[in-house]
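CtpF protein, pasting as requested.
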Amino acid sequence: MISYARQTQEQQPEAPPPPVEEHIAPAPRVSVQAFCETVETAAAVQSAGEDRRLGKAHLKIQMGGMAAAIEAYRSAPTPNVIVLESDGRSDLLTGLDQLATVCDAGTRVVVIGRINDVMLYRELVRRGVSDYVLAPVGAIDVVRSICNLFSAPEAKAVGRIIAVVGAKGGVGASTISHNVAWAIARDLAMDAVVADLDLAFGTAGLDYNQDPPQGIADAVFSPDRVDTAFIDRLLSKCTDHLSLLAAPATLDRVYDFGTDAFDAVFDTLRATMPCIVLDIPHQWSGWTKRALIGADDILIVAAPDLANLRNTKNLFDLLKAARPNDRPPLYCLNQVGIPKRPEIAASEFAKAIESQPVVSIPFEPQIFGAAANNGQMIAEISANHKSIEMFLQIAQRLTGRSETKKQKSSLLSPLIEKLRGK
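C-alpha coordinates follow.
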Protein backbone atom coordinates (compact mmCIF):
# COMPACT_ATOMS: atom_id res chain seq x y z
CA MET A 1 0.00 0.00 0.00
CA ILE A 2 1.26 3.48 -0.83
CA SER A 3 2.07 5.44 2.32
CA TYR A 4 0.80 8.98 2.85
CA ALA A 5 2.98 11.96 3.67
CA ARG A 6 1.39 15.38 4.13
CA GLN A 7 3.57 17.46 1.86
CA THR A 8 1.98 19.64 -0.81
CA GLN A 9 3.31 22.49 -2.86
CA GLU A 10 1.01 24.46 -5.15
CA GLN A 11 2.81 25.12 -8.41
CA GLN A 12 2.55 27.96 -10.88
CA PRO A 13 2.32 27.30 -14.66
CA GLU A 14 5.98 28.30 -14.95
CA ALA A 15 8.49 27.13 -12.37
CA PRO A 16 10.05 30.24 -10.76
CA PRO A 17 13.52 30.27 -9.21
CA PRO A 18 13.58 29.64 -5.44
CA PRO A 19 13.24 32.69 -3.19
CA VAL A 20 16.42 33.84 -1.52
CA GLU A 21 15.36 32.71 1.93
CA GLU A 22 14.06 29.28 0.86
CA HIS A 23 15.72 26.45 2.71
CA ILE A 24 15.25 22.88 1.47
CA ALA A 25 16.69 20.20 3.73
CA PRO A 26 18.77 17.52 1.98
CA ALA A 27 17.23 14.11 1.41
CA PRO A 28 18.72 11.05 3.16
CA ARG A 29 20.13 8.01 1.39
CA VAL A 30 17.01 6.85 -0.44
CA SER A 31 16.25 5.22 -3.76
CA VAL A 32 14.13 7.22 -6.21
CA GLN A 33 12.73 5.94 -9.49
CA ALA A 34 11.00 8.28 -11.95
CA PHE A 35 8.69 7.25 -14.80
CA CYS A 36 8.28 10.14 -17.20
CA GLU A 37 6.11 10.70 -20.26
CA THR A 38 7.86 13.75 -21.70
CA VAL A 39 11.51 14.47 -22.35
CA GLU A 40 11.11 17.88 -20.66
CA THR A 41 10.10 16.28 -17.37
CA ALA A 42 12.81 13.65 -17.69
CA ALA A 43 15.38 16.41 -18.19
CA ALA A 44 14.10 18.27 -15.10
CA VAL A 45 14.31 15.10 -12.99
CA GLN A 46 17.80 14.38 -14.33
CA SER A 47 18.89 17.91 -13.40
CA ALA A 48 17.33 17.49 -9.94
CA GLY A 49 19.38 14.34 -9.42
CA GLU A 50 22.53 16.43 -9.83
CA ASP A 51 21.45 18.90 -7.14
CA ARG A 52 23.50 18.81 -3.93
CA ARG A 53 20.38 18.12 -1.82
CA LEU A 54 19.79 14.84 -3.63
CA GLY A 55 23.48 13.96 -3.53
CA LYS A 56 22.87 10.93 -1.29
CA ALA A 57 19.80 9.71 -3.17
CA HIS A 58 20.07 7.04 -5.86
CA LEU A 59 17.97 8.23 -8.80
CA LYS A 60 16.91 6.24 -11.84
CA ILE A 61 14.80 7.61 -14.71
CA GLN A 62 12.67 5.67 -17.19
CA MET A 63 10.21 6.70 -19.84
CA GLY A 64 6.73 5.24 -20.15
CA GLY A 65 4.83 6.81 -17.28
CA MET A 66 2.30 4.85 -15.25
CA ALA A 67 2.20 1.80 -17.53
CA ALA A 68 5.97 1.35 -17.30
CA ALA A 69 5.87 1.68 -13.49
CA ILE A 70 3.20 -0.98 -13.08
CA GLU A 71 5.05 -3.35 -15.37
CA ALA A 72 8.40 -2.73 -13.66
CA TYR A 73 7.16 -3.58 -10.18
CA ARG A 74 5.27 -6.75 -11.02
CA SER A 75 8.49 -8.66 -10.45
CA ALA A 76 10.73 -6.16 -8.62
CA PRO A 77 10.61 -4.42 -5.23
CA THR A 78 9.61 -0.76 -5.20
CA PRO A 79 12.06 1.99 -4.19
CA ASN A 80 11.63 4.50 -1.36
CA VAL A 81 10.11 7.07 -3.74
CA ILE A 82 8.33 6.70 -7.07
CA VAL A 83 7.89 9.79 -9.26
CA LEU A 84 5.13 9.40 -11.84
CA GLU A 85 4.22 11.70 -14.71
CA SER A 86 0.67 11.49 -16.04
CA ASP A 87 -1.33 13.63 -18.48
CA GLY A 88 -4.79 12.23 -17.83
CA ARG A 89 -7.25 11.99 -14.90
CA SER A 90 -9.16 8.72 -15.18
CA ASP A 91 -6.08 6.88 -16.42
CA LEU A 92 -4.11 8.30 -13.48
CA LEU A 93 -6.57 7.12 -10.81
CA THR A 94 -6.98 3.72 -12.42
CA GLY A 95 -3.24 3.35 -12.76
CA LEU A 96 -2.67 4.26 -9.11
CA ASP A 97 -5.15 1.57 -8.04
CA GLN A 98 -3.19 -0.97 -10.08
CA LEU A 99 0.13 0.31 -8.78
CA ALA A 100 -1.06 -0.09 -5.19
CA THR A 101 -1.37 -3.83 -5.76
CA VAL A 102 2.34 -4.18 -6.56
CA CYS A 103 3.71 -1.37 -4.38
CA ASP A 104 5.65 -2.24 -1.22
CA ALA A 105 4.59 -0.80 2.14
CA GLY A 106 6.38 2.44 2.94
CA THR A 107 6.96 3.52 -0.65
CA ARG A 108 6.04 7.14 -1.27
CA VAL A 109 4.59 8.36 -4.55
CA VAL A 110 4.94 11.80 -6.14
CA VAL A 111 2.69 12.54 -9.12
CA ILE A 112 3.51 15.13 -11.78
CA GLY A 113 0.38 16.13 -13.68
CA ARG A 114 -1.19 18.89 -15.74
CA ILE A 115 -4.67 19.07 -14.19
CA ASN A 116 -5.06 21.84 -11.62
CA ASP A 117 -8.14 20.54 -9.81
CA VAL A 118 -8.72 20.30 -6.06
CA MET A 119 -11.08 17.33 -6.49
CA LEU A 120 -8.35 15.40 -8.28
CA TYR A 121 -5.91 16.30 -5.53
CA ARG A 122 -8.31 14.97 -2.89
CA GLU A 123 -8.67 11.72 -4.81
CA LEU A 124 -4.89 11.40 -4.97
CA VAL A 125 -4.56 12.02 -1.23
CA ARG A 126 -7.25 9.44 -0.55
CA ARG A 127 -5.20 6.91 -2.52
CA GLY A 128 -2.11 7.70 -0.47
CA VAL A 129 -0.15 9.91 -2.89
CA SER A 130 2.47 11.91 -1.03
CA ASP A 131 2.66 14.96 -3.30
CA TYR A 132 1.10 16.30 -6.49
CA VAL A 133 3.24 18.69 -8.56
CA LEU A 134 1.73 20.69 -11.40
CA ALA A 135 3.61 20.49 -14.70
CA PRO A 136 5.70 21.89 -16.29
CA VAL A 137 8.27 21.33 -13.57
CA GLY A 138 11.80 22.60 -13.05
CA ALA A 139 14.62 20.85 -11.27
CA ILE A 140 14.02 22.77 -8.04
CA ASP A 141 10.37 21.61 -7.97
CA VAL A 142 11.47 18.00 -8.09
CA VAL A 143 14.16 18.60 -5.46
CA ARG A 144 11.67 20.33 -3.15
CA SER A 145 9.03 17.61 -3.53
CA ILE A 146 11.38 14.69 -2.84
CA CYS A 147 13.25 16.38 0.01
CA ASN A 148 10.05 17.52 1.73
CA LEU A 149 8.90 13.91 1.94
CA PHE A 150 11.58 13.38 4.58
CA SER A 151 11.08 16.63 6.49
CA ALA A 152 7.98 15.97 8.55
CA PRO A 153 6.25 19.11 9.90
CA GLU A 154 6.60 17.86 13.47
CA ALA A 155 10.29 17.06 13.06
CA LYS A 156 13.03 19.34 14.25
CA ALA A 157 14.15 21.69 11.51
CA VAL A 158 17.30 20.64 9.72
CA GLY A 159 20.09 23.10 10.34
CA ARG A 160 21.39 25.56 7.77
CA ILE A 161 25.09 25.19 6.92
CA ILE A 162 26.97 28.40 6.15
CA ALA A 163 30.48 28.04 4.73
CA VAL A 164 33.00 30.88 5.03
CA VAL A 165 36.21 30.71 3.02
CA GLY A 166 38.97 33.13 2.12
CA ALA A 167 39.73 33.86 -1.51
CA LYS A 168 43.39 33.95 -0.46
CA GLY A 169 45.32 33.14 2.67
CA GLY A 170 45.55 35.86 5.30
CA VAL A 171 42.47 37.85 4.25
CA GLY A 172 40.77 37.44 7.64
CA ALA A 173 38.12 34.88 6.69
CA SER A 174 38.30 33.18 10.10
CA THR A 175 37.90 36.48 11.93
CA ILE A 176 34.88 37.34 9.77
CA SER A 177 33.30 33.91 10.24
CA HIS A 178 33.69 34.03 14.03
CA ASN A 179 32.22 37.52 14.33
CA VAL A 180 29.35 36.70 11.95
CA ALA A 181 28.55 33.59 13.99
CA TRP A 182 28.57 35.79 17.10
CA ALA A 183 26.04 38.11 15.43
CA ILE A 184 23.85 35.17 14.40
CA ALA A 185 23.78 33.92 17.99
CA ARG A 186 23.52 37.26 19.81
CA ASP A 187 21.52 39.53 17.50
CA LEU A 188 19.41 36.97 15.62
CA ALA A 189 18.95 34.72 18.67
CA MET A 190 19.70 31.55 16.69
CA ASP A 191 21.46 28.61 18.28
CA ALA A 192 24.65 28.27 16.26
CA VAL A 193 27.88 26.31 16.24
CA VAL A 194 31.22 27.25 14.69
CA ALA A 195 33.12 24.30 13.24
CA ASP A 196 36.81 25.12 12.84
CA LEU A 197 37.96 22.94 9.94
CA ASP A 198 41.57 24.13 9.97
CA LEU A 199 42.72 21.32 12.24
CA ALA A 200 46.40 22.23 12.20
CA PHE A 201 46.27 26.01 12.50
CA GLY A 202 42.69 26.92 13.45
CA THR A 203 42.13 30.09 15.49
CA ALA A 204 38.52 29.73 16.65
CA GLY A 205 39.61 28.48 20.08
CA LEU A 206 41.84 31.53 20.52
CA ASP A 207 39.25 33.99 19.20
CA TYR A 208 36.55 32.70 21.58
CA ASN A 209 39.03 32.23 24.45
CA GLN A 210 38.29 28.51 24.64
CA ASP A 211 40.70 25.62 25.14
CA PRO A 212 38.55 22.47 25.11
CA PRO A 213 40.30 19.11 25.54
CA GLN A 214 38.30 17.63 22.66
CA GLY A 215 37.00 18.94 19.38
CA ILE A 216 36.34 18.22 15.74
CA ALA A 217 39.42 16.01 15.30
CA ASP A 218 37.94 13.46 17.71
CA ALA A 219 34.89 13.19 15.46
CA VAL A 220 36.74 13.08 12.13
CA PHE A 221 39.12 10.35 13.26
CA SER A 222 36.32 8.29 14.87
CA PRO A 223 33.52 8.37 12.29
CA ASP A 224 31.90 5.21 13.68
CA ARG A 225 31.29 6.95 17.02
CA VAL A 226 29.68 10.08 15.57
CA ASP A 227 26.14 10.62 16.78
CA THR A 228 24.23 13.41 18.50
CA ALA A 229 25.42 12.53 22.00
CA PHE A 230 29.05 12.22 20.91
CA ILE A 231 29.04 15.58 19.10
CA ASP A 232 27.37 17.25 22.09
CA ARG A 233 30.27 16.13 24.29
CA LEU A 234 32.75 17.72 21.90
CA LEU A 235 31.05 21.12 21.78
CA SER A 236 32.44 23.97 23.85
CA LYS A 237 29.90 26.54 25.08
CA CYS A 238 30.84 30.13 24.17
CA THR A 239 27.53 31.89 24.94
CA ASP A 240 23.94 30.86 25.58
CA HIS A 241 23.35 30.54 21.84
CA LEU A 242 26.83 29.88 20.48
CA SER A 243 28.95 26.73 20.67
CA LEU A 244 32.32 25.78 19.23
CA LEU A 245 33.62 22.62 17.64
CA ALA A 246 37.28 23.50 18.02
CA ALA A 247 40.31 22.45 16.01
CA PRO A 248 43.22 20.92 17.95
CA ALA A 249 45.69 23.37 16.31
CA THR A 250 48.57 20.97 16.91
CA LEU A 251 51.08 19.38 14.55
CA ASP A 252 51.47 16.00 16.23
CA ARG A 253 49.69 14.28 13.33
CA VAL A 254 49.04 14.86 9.63
CA TYR A 255 45.48 15.87 8.73
CA ASP A 256 44.96 14.15 5.40
CA PHE A 257 41.27 13.48 4.79
CA GLY A 258 39.15 11.72 2.22
CA THR A 259 36.47 13.59 0.29
CA ASP A 260 33.63 12.50 2.59
CA ALA A 261 35.57 12.68 5.89
CA PHE A 262 33.34 15.37 7.39
CA ASP A 263 29.97 14.08 6.12
CA ALA A 264 28.97 12.34 9.35
CA VAL A 265 29.89 15.41 11.41
CA PHE A 266 27.90 17.77 9.19
CA ASP A 267 24.86 15.47 9.10
CA THR A 268 24.83 15.18 12.89
CA LEU A 269 25.23 18.94 13.35
CA ARG A 270 22.33 19.55 10.96
CA ALA A 271 20.11 17.38 13.12
CA THR A 272 20.89 19.28 16.32
CA MET A 273 21.72 22.90 15.45
CA PRO A 274 19.65 25.49 13.53
CA CYS A 275 22.80 27.15 12.17
CA ILE A 276 26.26 25.72 11.49
CA VAL A 277 29.08 28.06 10.46
CA LEU A 278 31.99 26.29 8.78
CA ASP A 279 35.34 28.06 9.04
CA ILE A 280 36.98 26.51 5.96
CA PRO A 281 40.75 26.88 5.55
CA HIS A 282 42.21 28.30 2.36
CA GLN A 283 43.17 25.12 0.56
CA TRP A 284 41.76 23.19 -2.36
CA SER A 285 41.08 19.51 -1.75
CA GLY A 286 38.28 17.04 -2.23
CA TRP A 287 36.74 17.66 1.19
CA THR A 288 36.94 21.46 1.07
CA LYS A 289 35.27 21.50 -2.35
CA ARG A 290 32.60 19.10 -1.08
CA ALA A 291 31.98 21.23 2.02
CA LEU A 292 31.52 24.37 -0.08
CA ILE A 293 29.24 22.78 -2.66
CA GLY A 294 27.18 21.06 0.05
CA ALA A 295 26.62 24.20 2.12
CA ASP A 296 23.31 26.03 2.06
CA ASP A 297 24.99 29.43 1.79
CA ILE A 298 28.55 30.55 1.11
CA LEU A 299 30.51 33.66 2.01
CA ILE A 300 33.82 34.36 0.28
CA VAL A 301 36.10 36.82 2.05
CA ALA A 302 38.46 38.74 -0.23
CA ALA A 303 40.98 41.55 0.00
CA PRO A 304 40.89 44.22 -2.74
CA ASP A 305 43.81 43.04 -4.86
CA LEU A 306 44.28 41.20 -8.15
CA ALA A 307 44.98 37.72 -6.75
CA ASN A 308 41.85 37.88 -4.59
CA LEU A 309 39.81 39.08 -7.55
CA ARG A 310 40.98 36.17 -9.70
CA ASN A 311 40.36 33.60 -6.96
CA THR A 312 36.94 35.02 -6.08
CA LYS A 313 35.94 34.91 -9.74
CA ASN A 314 37.11 31.29 -10.02
CA LEU A 315 35.20 30.30 -6.89
CA PHE A 316 32.07 32.07 -8.09
CA ASP A 317 32.15 30.37 -11.47
CA LEU A 318 32.74 26.91 -10.04
CA LEU A 319 30.10 27.18 -7.30
CA LYS A 320 27.44 28.65 -9.59
CA ALA A 321 27.98 25.80 -12.05
CA ALA A 322 27.97 23.14 -9.31
CA ARG A 323 24.90 24.62 -7.54
CA PRO A 324 22.52 25.68 -10.35
CA ASN A 325 19.44 25.59 -8.10
CA ASP A 326 20.96 27.65 -5.27
CA ARG A 327 21.51 31.36 -5.01
CA PRO A 328 25.06 32.46 -5.92
CA PRO A 329 27.68 32.81 -3.21
CA LEU A 330 28.01 36.07 -1.33
CA TYR A 331 31.32 37.85 -0.88
CA CYS A 332 32.66 40.69 1.22
CA LEU A 333 35.79 42.79 0.95
CA ASN A 334 38.00 42.90 4.01
CA GLN A 335 41.05 44.92 5.06
CA VAL A 336 40.04 47.77 2.78
CA GLY A 337 42.17 50.93 2.97
CA ILE A 338 45.62 49.68 4.01
CA PRO A 339 47.86 52.76 3.83
CA LYS A 340 50.05 53.04 0.71
CA ARG A 341 48.70 49.75 -0.73
CA PRO A 342 47.31 49.96 -4.27
CA GLU A 343 43.77 48.51 -4.22
CA ILE A 344 41.08 47.51 -6.67
CA ALA A 345 37.98 49.61 -6.06
CA ALA A 346 34.82 47.83 -4.89
CA SER A 347 33.01 48.94 -8.05
CA GLU A 348 35.68 47.34 -10.26
CA PHE A 349 35.59 44.19 -8.13
CA ALA A 350 31.80 44.04 -8.51
CA LYS A 351 32.02 44.56 -12.27
CA ALA A 352 34.39 41.63 -12.69
CA ILE A 353 32.44 39.31 -10.37
CA GLU A 354 29.07 40.57 -11.67
CA SER A 355 27.90 40.86 -8.09
CA GLN A 356 28.12 43.53 -5.42
CA PRO A 357 29.98 42.80 -2.17
CA VAL A 358 27.76 42.45 0.87
CA VAL A 359 29.97 44.87 2.80
CA SER A 360 33.45 46.40 2.60
CA ILE A 361 35.17 46.16 5.97
CA PRO A 362 37.87 48.78 6.55
CA PHE A 363 41.40 47.95 7.68
CA GLU A 364 41.57 48.74 11.40
CA PRO A 365 44.47 46.76 12.86
CA GLN A 366 44.27 48.24 16.34
CA ILE A 367 40.80 47.04 17.28
CA PHE A 368 40.95 43.78 15.32
CA GLY A 369 44.39 43.02 16.76
CA ALA A 370 43.24 43.77 20.31
CA ALA A 371 40.22 41.49 19.88
CA ALA A 372 42.40 38.65 18.57
CA ASN A 373 44.98 38.98 21.34
CA ASN A 374 42.31 39.18 24.06
CA GLY A 375 40.25 36.26 22.78
CA GLN A 376 37.21 38.48 22.22
CA MET A 377 34.82 39.48 19.48
CA ILE A 378 34.77 43.03 18.11
CA ALA A 379 31.39 43.59 19.83
CA GLU A 380 33.03 42.81 23.18
CA ILE A 381 35.91 45.22 22.58
CA SER A 382 33.82 48.12 21.25
CA ALA A 383 30.04 47.84 21.41
CA ASN A 384 29.49 50.67 18.93
CA HIS A 385 32.17 49.89 16.38
CA LYS A 386 30.95 50.29 12.79
CA SER A 387 32.08 46.79 11.77
CA ILE A 388 29.54 45.24 14.15
CA GLU A 389 26.70 46.48 11.95
CA MET A 390 28.49 44.95 8.95
CA PHE A 391 28.75 41.56 10.66
CA LEU A 392 25.04 41.73 11.43
CA GLN A 393 24.28 42.62 7.82
CA ILE A 394 26.22 39.57 6.63
CA ALA A 395 24.46 37.39 9.20
CA GLN A 396 21.05 38.58 8.01
CA ARG A 397 21.88 37.96 4.36
CA LEU A 398 23.20 34.48 5.06
CA THR A 399 20.34 33.36 7.29
CA GLY A 400 17.46 35.29 5.73
CA ARG A 401 16.51 36.60 9.17
CA SER A 402 16.05 40.10 10.48
CA GLU A 403 17.39 41.37 13.79
CA THR A 404 15.55 40.22 16.89
CA LYS A 405 13.88 43.18 18.53
CA LYS A 406 15.17 43.86 22.00
CA GLN A 407 12.61 44.40 24.73
CA LYS A 408 12.24 47.96 25.91
CA SER A 409 13.49 48.58 29.42
CA SER A 410 11.11 49.85 32.06
CA LEU A 411 11.62 51.96 35.14
CA LEU A 412 11.81 48.78 37.20
CA SER A 413 14.57 47.21 35.03
CA PRO A 414 17.51 48.34 37.25
CA LEU A 415 15.77 46.94 40.34
CA ILE A 416 14.97 43.67 38.60
CA GLU A 417 18.59 43.31 37.45
CA LYS A 418 19.80 43.86 41.03
CA LEU A 419 17.44 41.18 42.32
CA ARG A 420 18.62 38.75 39.65
CA GLY A 421 22.21 39.37 40.66
CA LYS A 422 21.58 38.35 44.24
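Note for the archive: Confidence is low (pLDDT under 50) at residues 1-20, 405-411.
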